[in-house]
Each structure stands twice: as C-alpha cells, then as structure tokens.
Amino acid sequence: MKLEASVASEPAVEIRQGVFRPDWSVATSVAARRALHGRIAARAGLLNQWSHRLEATGDTVWRTALQLYGASGQAPSVSDMAGASGIQPGRLADILRKFESHDLVAFNQTSNRIRLAYPFTESVTGHRVELNGHFLHALCAIDALGVAGMYDADIAISSSCVHCGDTIHARTTDKGRAVHSFSPVGAVIWYDFAYDGSAAASCCLAIAFFCSGGHLQQCLDLQKVRREGIRLTMDEALEVGRAIFGPVLSERS
Fold this sequence. Notes:
With 253 residues, the protein is α+β, with helices and mostly antiparallel strands. Helices cover 35% and strands 23% of the residues. A hairpin with a 4-residue loop joins strand 9 (167-173) and strand 10. The chain is globular and about 50 Å long. It starts with 12 loop residues before the first strand and ends in an 8-residue tail after the last helix.
C-alpha cells in the first residue's frame, strides 16, 4: 500500500461541488492514512454508488438532518426538516429512503423520524458525546471523535473499554482539531474494517475504545477468525474521524 502519494492523488468521493470525503489533508499520520485506505477498500462497492456527488436537494436534506441533530441533541422528524429546509415532507421522506440504500441514514417510516444519521443514533451504544450542551449517542469510537470535526466544535466523550469495562474519557480542543486530554493515558482505538452494507450493523459494532493496547490485544487474541483493522492512538483516531466527517458540513464550495 503506497502511503507516500500526494493528497491530491488519494481516493476520495466528491460529495458536493469542490468538497471531497475523506479529507486527506487532516490525515497526517501513517496510521490514520492506513485506516482510511482500509475503509475505502472494504467499502468499494458502496463508494461506487457515490461516483457522482449529491444533487442539490439531496445535499440540503442530508446537511439539514445533521445540523438539526447537532442543534437539538436528538433525531429530527420530517416535519422538523421540512420547516428548516423548505422542502415538502413527501419529497423529504423519499430522499431519506434513498439515503438508506447508500448507508447515510436509517429512517423510521412509522414515526417519520430518523433512527440514525452517522455519526449519531437513537440507540444506546455506550459511546456518549457531549456537544453544545447536549448528550448524544455515537455509533462507534471513530464516529464519536468525528463529531468534533463535523461541527467544528469541542466535545467530551465517555465510553468504556470493551475488555474490562473501565470508563474512558476524551476531550478535544481548538474547535475539535486536537485532543485536549484523555484517560486512561494508554487508551487506544480499534478501527475495524468489516463492512456488509451497513456500517451500523457491521464495523461500528467493533470500532471501539480500549483502556490499553494490552487489553485490545487480548481481545484480538480471543478472536477465532482474524479481524481486519488497525490499532490507533487517540490522536490518530481523531484524524480519521475528522477526515471522514469534517467535509460533511463544510462550507467550502
């Protein structure tokens, strides 16, 4: 795997005019770049569906959903999104159903509300993120860290070591651009590459915090089938989260 290539030559999807995902410019460490390459390889089929950027209405719906989620601390309803975007509820619901096939959201047609919109979910996952005074559930460790880059804001995370259950805390600084502090000091993240069409139902279940590299290794040693993934430090994991989620609400054009 060639990691010395320039940022411009790295694979990325244009999610809207001039805005590409992932943002390779923030992935400065070798491990973060390896993680992104592994993610892309595992999701090649899905990324082929995004060979063309979102059309304007779809982009508005996606961004509106995430802006409302971050502002209110809960999943928005179709009526919430219609009021904020000016798009008719029926059209909104159609677009949200389409987004499900691209693994961007999960939509509950009965309640007319979003069940999950990466990086957030209404399910209790154990990854708790404090953003703008609200407490939200993230789908995985990388999603939790990615919240900072998406909203250009500092966050606080609490989760637990998969191996021993001890609580892990992390805080960002500089509007989410750097790790301010974390405990325990040896905490690491496992970034799992498994993907079967839904990140929430596959890799997100295994992308987790560990209180030490030793506890991560013990969990990996217990696996009957070797998992594909990479160990990341907190700083490296924040780079991955920023690269994946930072472009989504970016104002660049």
